[in-house]
Amino acid sequence: MTLEDAGALLLRLAVGGLFLMGAWGSVKDEAARSFTTGETALVFKRDPRLFAYAGIAMMGLGGLSIVFGVFPRLGALALTIFLFGGAMIHFAKRGQLEVYESKVEPALSGDGAAPARKALRALTEAGVMGHFTAGLKNYALAGATAYLVCRSRTPMLIGFGQDGSLQGLLTRL
Questions:
Q1: What's this model's pTM, rounded to 2 decimal places?
Q2: How far are the Cα atoms of 52, 108, 136 from residue 127, in angstroms, in the given order?
Q3: Which residue ranges run through the membrane (predicted)?
Q4: 7 is in which domain, residue-wise?
Q5: C-alpha pair distances (Å), 114 with each of 52, 105, 106, 111
Q6: What DSSP state is assigned to residue 157?
Q7: Cα separation, 54 vs 79, whole angstroms
Q8: Is residue 75 part of a domain?
Q9: Is residue 116 part of a domain?
Q10: I want to staple 135 with a disulfide (CB 3.0 to 4.6 A). Which of 37, 90, 126, 129 is the partner?
Q11: Is pLDDT above 70 for 36?
């Protein structure tokens, strides 16, 4: 195994594992599924539940395909597409946080209003910056998944080679 092979294996395991954890976190209970659907609705207004479940499937199946080497390029392509939608959600969430602040701030009155308003502003700024950097993280991960789509190595178990033919260990059985 070359150093490049070891690096590609580590990248596949890290990226695939990340998406498997994300998929599990999105489906583990009804609260997680509702949260995921609500966040998806920020961008995908028409049938957000369908888009949320499609995104969860892309994360889970894409992660599995990359980790186990079963059509890994297709899995990586699905994740690359997913990541751009995820970035759009993070950027939309920034605007939603500022709307929340404008709704809460008028209710802060009385003796403690000034410190409470300052705390609210700090929370809003932290959330806005957090979602901005999370959106950028999605773009960076899209670069990693795009690399996995384009890499010229033979798939571990099964997948399409550069010439479009099925390749990998399972094609030898």
A1: 0.84
A2: 22, 19, 14
A3: 6-27, 50-68, 74-92
A4: 3-91+142-167
A5: 39, 10, 11, 8
A6: S
A7: 11
A8: yes
A9: no
A10: 90
A11: yes
